[in-house]
Amino acid sequence: METTGGSARNERITEIAVINLHDGNEVTGEFVSLVNPERNIPYFITNLNGHNQRKWLKNAPHFYEIARKLIEMTEGRTFVAHNARFDYSFIRTRV
What we know:
With 95 residues, this protein is of the alpha+beta class. Helix content is 37%, strand content 21%.
């Protein structure tokens, strides 16, 4: 997950990837999408992750447009992430 900043309450998701199925040898289900954060991306964040509001995110789907797919893919599953507490706070705030 990439975001516009560090606070789930005040910031927005700009990219999300869900790898939710694995058969023990390979990934069998995944979802990856840029997300239009509906706000400007701070300069610091653009430098950090390279996301450019005008080039990449302007035409990306809004979170509400992909939320149902995310819920369907993750319902009843374990949430694992590099920084799970941070990432999950954004999901919980938006869904």
